[in-house]
Write a structure and sequence with these properties.
Blueprint lengths: L7 H5 L30 H7 L3 E9 L1 H5 L14 H12 L17 E12 L3 E4 L1 H4 L4 E5 L5 E3 L1 E6 L4 E5 L22 E6 L7 E12 L9 E4 L11 E3 L5 E10 L8 E5 H14 L5 E2 L2 E5 L2 H6 L9 E6 L4 H5 L6 E5 L2 E2 L5 H7 L6 E8 L2 E8 L1 E2 L11 H8 L1 E3 L4 E5 L2 H6 L9 E6 L4 H4 L7 E5 L2 E2 L3 H13 L4 E8 L2 E8 L4 E3 L3
Antiparallel strand pairs: 1-2, 1-4, 2-3, 3-7, 4-5, 6-7, 8-9, 8-11, 9-10, 10-13, 11-12, 12-13, 12-29, 14-21, 15-16, 16-17, 17-18, 17-19, 19-20, 22-23, 23-24, 24-25, 25-26, 25-27, 27-28
Amino acid sequence: MRLAPFALAAVLALPFAVAPPSAVTAQQITPQVPPPGAPSSFAPLAQRLLPAVVNIQTTQASAQARAGRDAPEVPQAPPGSPFEEFFRDFLERNRPQAPGQPGRPQPPTRRGQSLGSGFIIDPSGIVVTNNHVIEGADEINVVLQDNTTIRAELLGADPRTDLAVLRVRHSAPLPSVPFGDSDSAKVGDWVVAIGNPFGLGGSVTAGIVSARGRDIRQGLYDDFIQTDAAINRGNSGGPLFNLNGEVVGINTAIYSPSGGSIGIGFSIPSNLAKNIVAQLRDDGRVRRGWLGVNIQQVTDEIAESLGLGNQARGALVARAQDDGPAAKGGIQAGDVILRFNGQEVREMRNLPRIVAETAVGSRVPVVVWRDGREQTVEVTVAELPSEQQQAAVNPQQQQRQQQTELTGLGLQIAPITPELRERFSLRAESRGVVITEVAPGSTAAERELRPGDVIVEVQQERVTTPQEVQERLERLRRQNRATALLLIESAQGQRWVPLRLNAPQRGQPG
């Protein structure tokens, strides 16, 4: 890696004055004292914790090789155009030959490599990291602090919370760190982040808890800790420690216009991660509680109309799904869920997380607001069905939830549904991801993308879900690629569109 030199000349050119020795007072040379509660040094803590933090290295064959595709399709160009001949000639020269077929030999399979972080929670070799660090990897290696590299086994991963659990086998017990109580981490508390930024190796940064309960629109269960401890690409999956050396967060995402730290990092709270990690370790999958309701936010106007007072709170039930746990327990449309299993539902987005963390099969009390007073019903929590989405509400809000924002590109995208196919007059054979909104003045608007256009491929790889589009773009960002090449289908046909990736973005640091 090439590092830019410091601008020493600019610093040395600044005017400064030196006081004569007689003018230097005892007060002027008194060293700065750390504020109350701050350690004089993080060195003892870092020395104790570093051995339990690991680097994660993954390799991945190109998607084209894995899928067995011979070569990308020739981009459409006007018949007889020199571009048509150019693309066909170029791709034919680079098309791999089948075994035993004469011609150019098949090139070696291209492999990508990515770097991330993780930490050991059990001396037997159980490692926690982010799902996006190891997602799609053909090989995962864990590098210990002494540079010992061990092949890792994936025990389980949970894309919904972006967590993954690995196992490594070693001849001796490994250093480990415990989970702490993230609920006890208050805004302003000191925290320490350890990880592998930019593949440089174990690095320690310190800061404070900047905020709690952040929703950064990464998923249904967002409840992030925000910190100003420097987190960069490669820190993903690394631990966020309190001053007792306990893990209170798993560093997952940053907000950055440049890809580097600007002091806005996000960590998954340990209290959310503990249950997920335990299930992945034991069963390889996560079982989540399910209530079976469509809900919406309680506004001030709704609160007033229902007699809740002037403070909006709770989650308003728009529909209790037929034969779902809520309907069987007596929850009705129009109820406002105020407390679930003893936990207060402050706003709509709290409820899915609280329900998901409740043990499947347990019978719990639910306090609802009905007919101008609080009433309590009991509900038996069921298991969340596969691909079930449980937060939004009426059809318009449900459609908005299915949309995914490609921040920095100015695009909102969604899977092709019968409603969107009708709304944008899409062809029956159209396959891909539909663009639902384009921000004025954005990178996408500059390239004349329009709502109703369909993204068919990203970087010559077919996509069928918004998640696949995001994954391809994040992979390109981790490779420091400046643009992404999209195959766009519109009423006029298909065309290739390059989009810049260096715009401000909310991103996962690799």
